[in-house]
Amino acid sequence: MSNQGKTTLHIGLIHHPVLNKKRETIGSAVTNLDIHDIARTAKTYGVAKYFISTPYQDQHQLVGELLQHWESGHGASYNPARKEALSIVSIAASLDDIIDTIEAEHGKAPLLVTTSAVMQDNSVSYNDLAQTIINKEPVLLLFGTAHGLAPEILKRADVSLPPIKGGTDYNHLSVRSAASIIIDRLLGS
Amino acid sequence: MSNQGKTTLHIGLIHHPVLNKKRETIGSAVTNLDIHDIARTAKTYGVAKYFISTPYQDQHQLVGELLQHWESGHGASYNPARKEALSIVSIAASLDDIIDTIEAEHGKAPLLVTTSAVMQDNSVSYNDLAQTIINKEPVLLLFGTAHGLAPEILKRADVSLPPIKGGTDYNHLSVRSAASIIIDRLLGS
Predict the structure, then answer these.
(1) By C-alpha distance, which of B71, B105, B74, B104 is closest to B87?
(2) CATH number for the domain that contains residue A71
């Protein structure tokens, strides 16, 4: 497998703590297609690692079985391209876990970047964040499942990306679509 | 429901004729999430209409039931935002069907634009196509399911968008991700 085009951008899909419809903090279930679709986009753009973060042990087992199927089970021979995309996926128990893993590899903590459908106080432009990645600084970009990242995660961020606006008042992208659009804005040519 | 931000861009998701892994022409099955995810992105960016194209009557019935659930069934009250996204979805039997519908509304045939993971001879830049939409010319942008649009569809196109490149040699985006990225490149601010 080639490392051609590999960047210092890491992404994390957070399943806890996130918000539900009523803006209460919850843990969400891991979704099969969130793993596949976002891994394929991440691999296309040279994202270094895609972390699936959940504190629940049964979810770790489920993700582990899925990855095993595609990495060394029947899926590996059936679809080698899928195996390659999923090779950048790791499971993590928490945000601190992800940060520790990146710090161990890069010798420093990553710039912690959040995404939200609401503008935050600490916003950074897509161009400025793209430049940080070009400079090879480690970056960890977080996406929230369900109705988005909980305030306790947003508060920890060094910077936050502005919400995606499409020129209408409708604002309900899937996390899969939002991740694809944001990764393209940061790493697309 | 507001028409604020509505554009002249129409999109079509083609289920026949498309290619399989061996580059044979086939018809693919409609996927629930292709409808939901792409409708949400399309609605966010003011796409005029999202056509699901398949010649199979059982698939028409399936899509009809799904739309009914979200438009007037239990889903409509459970998730009004989803209802709004799916309000721009139409089912069509063929590409000609879609073109006829757009022509009936706009008084002229749309500019027919295809997408492909391989560069075509008739390529147009994202900026030029964006300008066509700003000029309020009707545009029909086609995405292929399975392994992409069949040659007979690509040959009919007036122009084609260049493939999405992510700076690596990996090139296996889901159609959901590709559609989101391309719509953002055309209509994002």
Answers:
(1) B71
(2) 3.40.1280.10
